[in-house]
Structures are given as structure tokens and as C-alpha cells.
Amino acid sequence: MPDKFTAMSSELYDYLVNRRSERDPILAELAKETAATLGPVSMMQIAPEQGAFMTLLARAIGARSAIEVGTFTGYSALALARGLPDDGRLLCCDINDEWTGIARRYWQKAGVDHKIELRLGPALDTLRSLPAATRFDIAFIDADKPNYRNYYEEILARLRPNGLLLFDNVLWMGQVLDTASSDESTQAIQQLNDFLPTDRRVEVVMLAISDGLTIVRKRADAEA
Q1: Which residues are CB-contacts of 7 (< 8 A; sequence separation ≥ 6)?
Q2: What is the DSSP string of 186-203?
Q3: What is the gyration radius of the CA atoms in the chain, in angstroms?
Q4: Phi and psi (nearest 5°) for 111?
Q5: Helix (H) or strand (E) run with residue 82 in it
Q6: Which residues sit opposite 165 in a β-bridge?
Q7: Which long-range contacts (CB under 8 A, 24 or more apart) does 55-60 make?
């Protein structure tokens, strides 16, 4: 079977990004400020087509309750919040008050701040403090890679049947192919990527969006 992918050039990427319906000037402004303020660190922000995709997914499944682990300056949270109804709720977990301070300003500017609760502190502590009966419709994990599996288990237990869980950076800039790597984050992503397709509680697809995006659906008969 021939390779079924198109190699991306800068010109082709611009073509792709410019042909989406979700064109949010506030998201564009946030991306610009993040780059100007934080410089190279701004690469942690998700890509615009990924944000539009996440908004679309949230709307498509009728999500009302969402959770995000790793908020940075708030781009992904704003994208998810845009996909929730006016009475929807998004719980954001992060540890950086400075970066999330930028996020708060833009959530307010976009008129979605009433949908978002930000909890500062170790995300695992936040997740483990949630009542067992908590149920989320959609989740996004984009934080410290060694804890990806721990975040997964805590959130999966609180994800509704047929709910979606998204992992960012699963291609790790191609380093997932380096089986000799001793880097803790690389090894954590490799192990997660190998584990997820074997987990009978879910079904999984990995997409070449930005630095790789894995989408997990919790099976209706799953026990977590």
C-alpha cells in the first residue's frame, strides 16, 4: 500500500490553515501576544487548525462539561469553551499563575470566562480531589509528559461513555521513533502510544495534526 499522506510545506500549511471556518480574531490576538511576550516558549501553544478542530469536536458531540490539563496562556481552553453551550463548564488545571493570567484576560475578552474554572496547583491533586461521580464529555491533556498516563487514568474514570479524550504532542517532534532515547518525556509518550491501542476500555486514533493528536473514545461498556 502506498504512503497515504501529503508532505507539508510552509505554503501548503498556510493554505490549510486559511481554509477553516472557525476564524476567531481573539484567538489570533492571543497567539500574537503569547509569541511577543514569551518568545520561543510560545511554541507550547496549540496550532490554529487544532484549536478549530477541538471546537468542532466539542460541538459535534454536544459537550457540556470539559476538562483541560495544561492551560498555558489559554488558547486551547478558549477553543474548547467556544464549543460548549452558554451554560457549559470547562475545568482548567495548571500551575503557572503568570501564564494563566494572560489566559484569564482573553477568556474575559471573548466572553467565555463564565464557563471556565481555573484551578492552580498540581493537576493530579486536582483530579484526585474530584468526586468519583464527576462526569466529563471531553478532555484535553497537554501538560508534563511523564504524567500523561496518570492524567489519563484519573480522567478516564470520570469520562462519560462515548466521551472523548485528546492527547497533544504524541509525535513529540518525531522523537517517538528514537527507541534508544533516555529522555523521560520521550519514553513516557512512547509508552503511552504503545499502551492506548491495547486498552480495551477505549478506541483510539492518532492524527498528524500539528505535533500529533490522539483521540480516545471511551467505550459505552467500559469500566474505568
Answers
A1: none
A2: HHHHHHHHHHGGG-TTEE
A3: 17
A4: 75, 25
A5: helix 75-82
A6: 139, 216
A7: 55/22, 55/79, 55/80, 55/82, 55/83, 56/22, 56/83, 57/83, 57/138, 57/164, 57/166, 57/215, 58/82, 58/83, 58/84, 58/137, 58/138, 59/83
Q: What does the pLDDT read at residue 1?
A: 66
Which residues are 215's β-sheet partners? 166, 205
Placement of cell 472523548 in the chain: 164
- The Cα 156–Cα 221 span in angstroms is 13
pLDDT of residue 2: 73
Report the length, in residues, of the chain. Answer: 224
What is the CATH T-level fold of the domain 10-218, as seen in this structure? Rossmann fold (3.40.50)
Give the model confidence (pLDDT) of 42-96 as tens digits: 999 999 999 999 999 999 999 999 999 999 999 999 999 999 999 999 999 999 9
Going by C-beta distance under 8 Å and a sequence separation of 6 or more, which residues neighbour residue 58?
66, 80, 82, 83, 84, 137, 138
Please choose, from the candidates 82, 80, 121, 129, the residue with its C-alpha nearest in 3D space to the C-alpha of residue 100.
Answer: 121
User: Mind listing the pLDDT tens digit for each residue in 109-133?
Assistant: 999 999 999 999 999 999 999 999 9
d(CA 34, CA 69): 19
pTM reported for the whole predicted model: 0.95
Residue 160 to residues 1, 64, 107, 155, 156: CA-CA distances in angstroms? 37, 11, 26, 10, 8
Taking the C-alpha atoms of 21, 76, 165 and 153 in order, what is their torsion angle to the nearest 10 degrees?
A: 180
